[in-house]
Amino acid sequence: MKIYLIAIGSKMPQWVTHAYQDYAQRLPRECQLVLKAIAAEKRTKNSDLNKIKIKEANKLLAAIPNNCRIVALDVQGQSWSTEGLAKNLNTWMMSGQDIALLVGGPEGLTDEVRRKAQQLWSLSPLTFPHPLVRVVLSEQLYRAWSITANHPYHRA
């Protein structure tokens, strides 16, 4: 199974790239994490933010590989504990279907993206900067995998 992290934002600080890659490389081939970074639309003080959100949503949807289960990260989504994520990861792995995790831009996701998603997942009621989301996602996916594989990384 591949997990595609499809996220708006292509220019990340070096620490984000290193941290993301560290956790992504720890995952085994049967649970491979693949980043698809999509350039954010240019924003100015006079930008129509709704139009930008729609353009970015269209880019996200176009980047989803065929036959993926779509999981959109959204503050309105369901909040999972690490153990809950591990259960979801196990279910995803058993389905034989690839996963597309969608992370919108600063204005979030459109209703269309939410409707197309089979699951809505909220990392937290807190608002995180987008670079940090990539690091948290990759680490939590690795931790969830370690739980399903009885690997000693997770100690709870």
Quick summary of this structure?
The chain is an alpha/beta fold and 156 residues long. It contains five helices and five strands.
What's the arrangement of secondary structure elements?
Elements: E1 2-8, H1 14-26, E2 32-38, H2 49-62, E3 68-79, H3 82-95, E4 98-103, H4 111-116, E5 119-122, H5 130-148
Parallel strand pairs: 1-2, 1-4, 3-4, 3-5
Helix pairs in contact: 1-5, 3-5
Describe this structure in words.
The chain is α/β, with parallel strands linked by helices. The protein has one domain: 3-Layer(aba) Sandwich (Alpha/beta knot). Helix content is 42%, strand content 23%. The chain is built from 5 helices and 5 strands; from the N terminus they run βαβαβαβαβα. The chain has a 5-stranded parallel sheet. β1, α1 and β2 form a beta-alpha-beta unit. α1 packs parallel to α5 and α3 (82-95) crosses α5 (130-148). It is globular.
Describe the largest sheet: 5 strands, parallel
Q: Report the portion of residues in β strands.
A: 15-25%
Quote the average pLDDT.
Answer: 95
Main-sheet strand order equals 2-1-4-3-5
- Overall CATH architecture: 3-Layer(aba) Sandwich
Q: Shape, please?
A: globular
* N-to-C series of helices and strands: EHEHEHEHEH
- End-to-end distance, in Å? 26 Å
CATH superfamily: SPOUT methyltransferase, trefoil knot domain
